[in-house]
């Protein structure tokens, strides 16, 4: 990664995109980074598309990530991940939830939902770690845990320890919803494990493809 870390978080309103970005920012601030972030929400509370830009480092002048410079793309919804793929640098990493949540523009007939957005992102040459954060959250008994699952997934790709990010997650819920502390701890661990498993599968598949027939 560059001296400044650029993270783009995208999804649909109600998935916790902004909350996840805020927690990532709080973790970076706790380590003394200069942090800038900005959000664009289209009818966020009604299921509209949401994108959050987060930049942190020794000194950051602008919150806006320019196309082709994002280090990480955290996509809560696969079609949104595909739509924002162009923001990644060539060596960037996409982490994508496979759970689909159709945005209103599709229902209105303004946009055709892609047949396989994750395959399309991979076909464009982007490194992708894909996992089902939605199903993990549902199995834990609360679909709103999806944003903590996503944070667990990205924790291995940050320029600081996963423990720092987990502490920021738990601090948020300790103050607001202490009863959900253990569930969020489990969600974070499950997201991290799911991303590690998906990355290992990608490595195994690449090795198999490289073996001569």
TrEMBL record:
Residues 13-192 form the Pyruvate/ketoisovalerate oxidoreductase catalytic domain. InterPro entries: IorB_Oxidoreductase (IPR052198), Pyrv/ketoisovalerate_OxRed_cat (IPR019752), Pyrv_flavodox_OxRed_cen (IPR002869). GO terms for molecular function: oxidoreductase activity, acting on the aldehyde or oxo group of donors. The keyword Oxidoreductase applies. It holds the Pfam family POR. This is Indolepyruvate oxidoreductase subunit beta. Keywords: Oxidoreductase. The keyword DNA-binding does not apply. It comes from Rhodocyclus tenuis. It comes from the Bacteria.
């Amino acid at each position: 990664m560059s001296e400044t870390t650029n993270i783009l978080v995208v999804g649909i309103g109600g998935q916790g995109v902004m909350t996840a970005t805020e927690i990532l920012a709080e973790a970076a601030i706790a380590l003394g980074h200069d942090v800038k972030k900005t959000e664009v929400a289209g009818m966020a509370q009604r299921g509209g598309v949401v994108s959050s830009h987060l930049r942190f480092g020794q000194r950051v002048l602008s919150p806006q990530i320019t196309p082709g410079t994002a280090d990480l793309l955290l996509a809560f919804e696969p079609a949104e991940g595909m739509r924002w793929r162009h923001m990644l640098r060539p060596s960037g990493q996409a982490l994508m939830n496979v759970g689909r949540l159709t945005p209103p523009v599709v229902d209105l007939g303004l946009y055709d939902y892609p047949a396989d957005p994750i395959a399309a992102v991979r076909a464009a040459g982007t490194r992708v770690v894909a996992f089902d954060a939605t199903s993990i959250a549902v199995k834990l008994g609360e679909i709103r845990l999806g944003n903590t699952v996503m944070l667990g997934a990205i924790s291995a790709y940050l320029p600081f320890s996963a423990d720092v990010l987990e502490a920021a997650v738990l601090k948020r819920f300790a103050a607001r919803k202490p009863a959900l502390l253990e569930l969020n701890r489990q969600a974070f661990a499950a997201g991290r494990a799911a991303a590690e498993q998906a990355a290992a599968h990608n490595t195994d598949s690449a090795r198999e493809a490289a073996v001569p027939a």
